[in-house]
Write the structure tokens for this entry.
Amino acid sequence: MQQVLMALVPGTLAMTWFFGWGVLVNVLLGVLFAVAFEAAMVAARKRPVMATLADNSAIVTGWLFALAIPPLAPFWVTLIGIAFAIIVAKHLYGGLGYNPFNPAMVGYVVVLVSFPREMALWPAPSTLPESPLTLLQTLQTVLTGSLPGAQAWDAVTRATPLDAMREGLVSGRTVGEITASPLFGSFTETGWEWVGNFFLLGGLYLLFRRIIHWHIPVAVILGVAIPAGFFWLLDPDSFASPAFHVFSGAVIIGAFFIATDPVSASTTPLGRILYGAGIGVLIFVIRTWGGYPDAVAFAVLLMNMVAPTLDHLTRPRIFGRTRGGPPPGDDRA
Amino acid sequence: MQLHRFHGGLKLADETEASTADPVLVMGVPAKLTVPLGQHIGEATEACVQVGDHVTKGQRIGQSKGYIAAHVHAPTSGKVVDIDLYPVPHPSGLNAPCVVIEPDGHDEWGDARMEPWLDWDTRDLRALRQRLRAGGIVGLGGAAFPTAVKLNPRAGQRIHTLIVNGAECEPYISADDMLLRTAPEAVFEGIRITARLLGVERVLFAVEDNMPEAMRSLTETLPTELRDLIELVSVPSIYPTGGERQLIKVLTGQEVPSGGLPADLGMVCHNPGTFKAICDTVIQGRPLLSRIVTVTGPGVKHPRNVEALLGTPFADVIEAAGGYAEGVDRLVMGGPMMGFAVHDDSIPVIKATNCLLATRPQDTPAPGPVMPCIRCAECAAVCPAQLLPQQLYWQAKAKDFDAIQDYGLFDCIECGCCAYVCPSNIPLVQYYRYAKNEIWAREKERHKSDIARERYEFRQERIEREEREKAERLAKKKAALKNKEADGDKQAAIQAALERAQKKKAARAEESAKDSDQASGSETTGEETSTTDNTRDGDGR
């Protein structure tokens, strides 16, 4: 888990650079709340607190949750989301190793459906020196839920590229018109693009250190990119490019850091590919025809439900047997 | 030669350097030998000597009763001072029957010694097999399966390939390595005998690539006439290449069927030490009395290999390797991966003792606390049986014994790779052993209750049948009795009729004597007819 935390650092710093101090503030709050709830639950369940905290899984949950919510979201959003993640999604199911759903994503979905207004407070990507809010102002915003001085939310926040794309397509504009904004880089808005790149860097580090295996991230990205590419080739005016899909929103961090949570994922090689591909396809489907601009959390939770079945159906061939061969006989003769 | 790979496995550090520096030390006769009667896998062996008996070297002291079994011999001459339960090397730590011999110091072979067979080549195969059985040989790689059984293929089974398993893959063990360096000729002779017995076409002699000395020794001493038969193959040292099924896969690319044996593929696999034992028994008439043991680990002062008589206490063997180092806390029989800790060093060397590994606390840092399984599946990535150890673990924990068998529990070879890589320090193999034992116990229980139920049902059926038969017999008897009664009536009726007829006859005779009357004659005929009707009625009743 320490390796996962290390791998999150470059992406987190990049996000802070482009989206302001709120990212760091949220990460700190998220980790703090997560560790506090974890300690409380472990103590309530009469387990060794320090030994359990040492697995760092609560920190990962808090951190990932914080990266998923808007940097200027008020603190109570984090508090409620983390409480749900740690208490309900994790410990009520038996704690680490027993949770069928990814805790951070459960927490995120709870606040996403409960507080849509607060969950839309994404600042316009800029750079840290040009950020409209200083560190102190950001702290004030997060803790009070309102902007300091006379600043208006509309001046500070902005639709994310996925939001913009969704709104634009609904109102009849073409993909070309939507992406004509000066904020756009090669694939999507420059800020989002770079954040994606740095999370990708962290993800590759995890792959290199063999903390995660290639199956899930590759399958998630291809699961998004292949259907996206197919529809984009059919009608490039009505469907965004596969690169836009991959680099906008949470696909990269989802592929490398969220879908790879081993507890709630499939464990067999083939199962992992199907699991990842399922997440990717669901992301594309929900984004394109569903009610939410981004869909990583929903896609992950839906595939969490399928993981045990995937494991059962994709068991590897056992040494000395044929695949799907006769059931084991009496091997003790 | 094209080699193949098996799934998973581990690249482990080679720790054999220290124990291979010195030649094999042939240990003397200890003050007392405790020879366990059960030193093999299979059916029990019974003592065939009595307390107080004098035994000679090589004399049979344990007689095997079954087919899958091996005799046990006196490793030296002396007096049997006890036959009783003693601690033996077994993971359970339970005591087992042993013959305790006090050596007389003469080390004499008595008259019972098998004569050397320098002309084994001309002996018939039956006699050779009998001699191997008489030699009490078992697989010396550690599993201790009776060798004679493996050399006697089932009818219709043709063995074309003999495999020599010189892949000593556990990190510390070097007993085969040293044997191949010092006595390759005996191993080749053993191979020759076995090849003749089985009628094989080729012999694949596998040696791990981290045993270059052994390979050189084999290459130099391989007899010219055997060059066409025996192929020396260097195999990569990946744990557990020394597993029979894994080695066959590496050498031939074929997989022994689940639940089957190498013989199903026409192959038989033996450890080099076993071939030496075959050579000793057949050519010298010397049954299996001793074996090479690697005494090693940071817990002994002078790691080395020794040849120890079966029944020698572990403590003596450790002493031969310079004794314990300061602060030893753990003694393991076998390698670090598959061996088991013993808690008493007075227990004896047995046929399966390939290694004694002594360690200090600082050499085997306690594994961290056991944490929950996070389903990372690192265990599945290293499992040479291609199982899903994490699923087996959950199923064992949930006591879901049907599912765990469906997931291949009995294909598990207990190599321990899964537990070795587990980041949560879960002792996975213990769970699998538990599940296996539990399933066996339940099966035994079920078998027992099946027998009991069958007996009960049989008894019920028998009682019912007997009662039914009784009832039938009774009914028959009754019927017979009635018939008899009916017969009685008939007789009486006939008698009565006869009497009546006689009376009438007499009366008629009197009448005819007086006057001859037609009417009375017809009357008589009517009487007679009615009598006959009465009789018929009685019959029909």
